Amino acid sequence: MHNLPFDRPGRFWRGNLHTHSDHSDGALSPEETSRLYQEAGYDFVAITDHFRAEYGFPLTDTRALRTTAFTTLLGAELHAPRTEFSTEWHIIALGLPLGFPPPDSAESGTELARRARAAGAFIGMAHPAASLLTLPDAESLDAAHAVEVYNALSAWEDRGDSWHLCDLLLGRGHRLGAYAADDAHFQPKDPPGCAAWVQVRAESLNPNALLAALKACHYYSSTGPEIHDVRLHDGKITIRCSPVSRVLVTGCVPGKQLQAGHALTECTLPLDMFRASAYIRVTVVDATGQRAWSNPIWLS
Ligand SMILES: [Zn+2]
Ligand SMILES: [Zn+2]
Q1: Which helix H or strand E contains 96, and what residues bound it?
Q2: What is the pLDDT of residues 265-297, one digit of tens each?
Q3: pLDDT given for residue 96 in this prediction
Q4: 31-35, long-range: CB within 8 Å, 24+ apart, which pairs?
């Protein structure tokens, strides 16, 4: 009935969906980048170099870095003109086929994203807050599977949170997922990586299984806490998680449901106030301020 991942077969696999290597403007090679994530306890990484002429339109081939314990998704950050306040779009495309043709100067962001999706890719609307995307911009990217609601690099620069735009899109009926990502470049001026990730529910650590789960919204996002279960029952919601100090349920109504406490690991909240909202979503915040977010949960 719901798109919740928690009781689906398989397990959660931790990954970063947005990273740059020295094939574009990142500091580290794909090998070094991949090793760094693996050593930090990740199960997979997507190296998404800037698909721009100045770098030779890289679609970084990381297949040789796959092992039985760690895998990679092939992808890129696509660019094309333009948004209301920026000369170019930033679009994450994962699962792109090698040889995906570069855009020509006439191709718009909307068209490029559609072409990437038609080629099999998962499409993410990258760092909307940092790009100052407007609601009309976002609605024009109709190929998007998800909004990058938290970008750790943008957060470092004080524009990391894109939930406002995502909630507006969801409230208008767009059935989008929501993911957090590093956008790591590992340059000296940058924040450390491994700060924001997804936990993807799939039966195996297989790139195709991970991509299918991403497209189906079978994941949640985090900068620290774990969400173990979210369950709807009798007009209520029950959340189980690693120890946190706040659990919030929000939807497309101005208010929220909140439970605060010390080292909460389970809480049940009523859903009455969300009768006018087509969806709800869950945020948990730990004692150090780190967060985890469920995907939007559709109520009808
Ligand atoms: Zn970008
Ligand atoms: Zn990027």
Answers
A1: none
A2: 999 999 999 999 999 999 999 999 999 999 999
A3: 98
A4: 31/65, 33/184, 33/186, 34/62, 34/65, 34/70, 34/72
Considering every ligand atom, which ligand is closest to the CA of 21? 2
Distances (CA, A) of 169 to 46, 107, 192, 252: 26, 24, 31, 10
Residues with CB under 5 A from ligand 2 (ion): 77, 183
What's the rounded Cα separation, in Å, for the pair 183 and 153? 6
Neighbours of ion ligand 1 (CB under 5 A): 90, 126
The β-bridge partners of 15 are: 44, 198
The pair of structure tokens assigned to 215 is: 């497209």
**Distance from residue 65's CA to the centre of ligand 1 (Å):** 24
Distance in Å, CA 13 to ligand 1 centroid: 24
Query: Residue 130 CA: which ligand is closest?
Result: 1
pLDDT tens for 61-103 read 999 999 999 999 999 999 999 999 999 999 999 999 999 999 9
Q: What is the model's pLDDT at position 3?
A: 81
Tallying the residues shown for the chain, one arrives at: 300
How far apart are the CA of 126 and the centre of ligand 2, in A?
A: 7
